[in-house]
Amino acid sequence: MRPVFRGPRNLRRQIVVGLVCVLLGFAVVGTAQTNDTTGVLATARESDLIQILDDLTQRRTRLEAETRSLVTARDQLLAGSPEQVIAQTRARVDALSVLAGTVPVYGPGIVVRLQDPQGVLDASIILDAVQELRDAGAEAIDINGQRIIVSTWFADGHTRGIDISGATVTPPYVITAIGEGDTMAAALRIPGGVADAVNAAGAHFSAQTSADMTIDSIVQPQRPRYAAPTS
Q1: CA–CA dist 56, 94 (Å, integer)
Q2: What is the mean pLDDT of residues 164-182?
């Protein structure tokens, strides 16, 4: 059966209908996201709103700085000499080793302690803390001797504590993160955030920044089963 050509007028109508559907989709998503935050923002105090705005501004600034850094690195690799390319590649390998958790790291950061004598905290709160730290610029994270990387998973323990990629850890949970300590502390204490959730559950949240700390835990790299680098 041959396709039926319905003419330019019908084609334009189909295009308009398609655009309207796309715009409606964006509107629905935007409305859902707005509804999720409207309740918190409507009841927040002025000081809380200022803190939330400052946190969003800091996140945007970090992302813009990261974008500029990546663009600069790309331009240098394209225009540099072989020696410069090798040096840039080695620096990139070092950075990826930190992100992959295959090397110990040191630097400024924060130590978060979650005292939970009643065992009321579950894996979701620990995951929220990790995500907030990452959003605030944490470059390396350790929880009770377990290095946290992009593939780390969390689950509630069978009896007490939580499972971190198959390893069971029990309270108190000590989260060590390398990065800008003050920024991470502020992110965790955002109204309605991790600190409030921990305290509301009946546990106790505390955080202390440090100018120099070390994360010794590492992750042994695993050989991929399916993926292979291209030539």
Answers
A1: 29
A2: 95
